[in-house]
From TrEMBL:
The lineage of its organism: Bacteria, Bacillati, Actinomycetota, Actinomycetes, Jiangellales. Keywords: Oxidoreductase. One of its GO terms (cellular component) is membrane. This is SDR family oxidoreductase. InterPro entries: NAD(P)-bd_dom_sf, SDR_fam. It comes from Jiangella asiatica. The keyword Oxidoreductase applies. The keyword S-adenosyl-L-methionine does not apply. Belongs to the short-chain dehydrogenases/reductases (SDR) family.
Length: 274
């Protein structure tokens, strides 16, 4: 019998898309750090397996099935997690999908791209909207949006995915501006190229031999959970390239240049948009 201790103050997390891939790695990695976890996913069987693995790490864990694009299912899931854990200190918006084909815009199905935007934008909007009142009632918290380099640079394919991640980057910056003063820090985090079912199915990764370790993602999220990177709220990190230590070493330059954020570049001091 596994004895699960009471949930420690300031050590709870809700993770979406937690039944496999990066979400599962985050659930287990945070549990290893003593963080109690609420896990959301659609696959009940796989979710139960991850919940059991977390509980064997002697932390409180609860799994709730929900479609992140459904307002009603999200509201019920967040209520259940908050009721089980008493509070939510960290939210990781990890659930996401990508187009089925790696082609330019006119060679893709617009409905496929729109489904990607629904899951990758509407999902984080609904989950964050449900979680933040719980965070604010508890004195604050941290939100991590799993993003991608495609949210910050153009590409010849995956139009809907890139649009969704660009919107998610703006969402991160809006939350930072609106709620940092109320104790909520928000971050954009690209996991890099982690070897998952989604990434290995993408033609752009065929033949890839080097992958970002899932532990690198866990380490950055763990540092965020611990509050080590709060001064860099609203900014973009990349696992496998950034570490908490490297980001803190760049702290003054990042802040001075207002770097690592979605901004409009101007033509110089005489540009009327400056």
């Amino acid at each position: 019998m596994v004895v699960v201790p009471e949930v420690p103050a300031g050590r709870t997390a809700l993770i979406t898309g937690a039944s496999r891939g990066i979400g599962r790695a985050l659930a287990l990695g945070l549990a290893d750090r003593g963080v109690a976890v609420g896990l959301l996913a659609r696959d009940r069987e796989r979710l139960d397996e991850v919940v059991a693995e977390c509980r064997h790490r002697r932390v409180a864990a609860v799994g709730v099935t929900a479609d992140v694009t459904s307002r009603e299912e999200v509201a019920a899931a967040v209520e259940a997690v908050a009721g089980h854990l008493d509070r939510i200190d960290l939210l990781v918006n990890n659930a996401g999908i990508i187009e089925r084909v790696e082609r330019p815009f006119l060679d893709t199905d617009v409905e496929d791209s729109w489904r990607v935007i629904e899951v990758d934008v509407r999902g984080p909007l609904l989950v964050t909207h449900a979680v933040m009142p719980v965070m604010l009632a508890g004195g604050g918290g941290r939100v991590v949006n799993l993003n991608s380099g495609l949210g910050y640079r153009p590409a010849p394919y995956y139009t809907g995915y890139a649009m969704a991640k660009g919107a998610l980057a703006r969402f991160t910056s809006m939350l930072d501006v609106q709620y940092r003063g109320q104790g909520i820090a928000t971050f954009d985090l690209s996991p890099g190229h982690v070897e998952t079912g989604m990434t290995t199915a993408m033609p752009m990764h065929v033949g890839r031999t080097t992958w970002t370790a899932a532990t690198d993602v866990v380490d950055l999220v763990g540092a965020i959970s611990d509050g080590r990177l709060d001064e860099l709220s609203g900014r973009f990190f990349r696992a496998g390239t950034d570490t908490a230590e490297s980001l803190l070493a760049l702290r003054e330059e990042i802040l001075a240049r207002d770097a690592r954020a979605l901004r409009l570049s101007t033509a110089g001091p005489d540009d009327p948009l400056g």
